[in-house]
Design a protein that fits this description.
Elements (H helix, E strand, L loop, with lengths): L1 H18 L2 H56 L3 H74 L3 H33 L12 H27 L2 H29 L1
Helix pairs in contact: 2-3, 5-6
Length: 261
């Protein structure tokens, strides 16, 4: 079972590797980085909004504190110390809230600065990744095109292999037909096969061909006799005599056949 699982995973990995396009993977990674950058920027905006809200609250509390202080002064001026004491007590409570809000404001301001710096750094990385991504994609596309062209020229691609096999089969079939035609011609010429086309030679032509073949044999025989007798003159006479005697012989041999007809 472990072996089967390993084989299955190996085949699945190989299939995924063939299906994977590096350009699509790079685009997907770039999209994820943009989403992360968007989240960081949204975080910066949220922190900045909270900081601004605290600033508004601080301004409001500080305004109330200033108002209570003014009311305390007026109460003392009128001889109402009790009212002045009450106004200062309220002002003290507001000052405590102001102090707490100022601490929160400083904390939020620090977080905002950190997030802003992180967003700037992430933006620089995303820009660098985008440039590198486009470079890799262009290089991969060029390499892919060069590989296809090289495979086409070398004939190792699947399409070119099919074309090469088709050409080879056509050439083999053509050679086979040519060999068969040549063999049939030789068999017809030798008489091993009968010509069924209706264009067979007639008796007169066959007899002429036979006599012509006999004349060639007689000429060769006369030439050999002349050579054995010795002397070029004898050889020449034998050849001339054979040439002159051949028509007469042919004529004498041809008359009985014509007479029979």
């Amino acid at each position: 079972m472990k072996r089967m699982g390993m084989i299955f995973r190996a085949k699945a990995n190989k299939a995924l590797d063939r299906a994977e396009d590096p350009r699509e993977t790079l685009d997907y990674s770039y999209q994820k980085q943009l989403e992360l950058l968007q989240k960081v920027r949204r975080g910066v905006a949220d922190v900045a909004t909270s900081r601004k809200r605290l600033e508004l609250q601080l301004n409001q509390l500080q305004g109330q504190s200033a108002k209570l202080e003014d009311q305390g002064r007026k109460a003392l001026a009128l001889g109402r110390e009790d009212l002045a004491r009450e106004a200062l007590s309220r002002r003290a409570a507001l000052q405590q809230q102001v102090s707490d809000l100022e601490v929160q404001h400083q904390t939020l301001q620090g977080e905002e600065e950190k997030l802003t710096l992180a967003a700037q750094r992430l933006q620089a990385k995303v820009d660098a990744f985008r440039t590198k991504k486009e470079t890799i994609k262009a290089t991969y596309t060029a390499a892919q095109a060069q590989t296809r062209i090289a495979e086409s020229f070398s004939g190792i691609s699947e399409e070119m292999s099919d074309v090469g096999l088709a050409i080879q089969r056509a050439e083999d079939k053509t050679a086979q037909l040519q060999a068969r035609a040549g063999a049939i011609d030789e068999l017809l010429a030798s008489g091993a096969l009968d010509d069924q086309s209706g264009l067979a030679k007639d008796d007169i032509q066959a007899e002429l061909d036979r006599l012509s073949g006999g004349t060639d044999v007689e000429l060769e025989l006369q030439r050999m006799k002349a050579e054995l007798a010795g002397g070029p003159s004898a050889q020449q006479q034998a050849i001339e005599g054979g040439a002159q005697g051949a028509p007469q012989q042919n004529q004498q041999q041809s008359h009985p056949r014509f007479d029979k007809q």
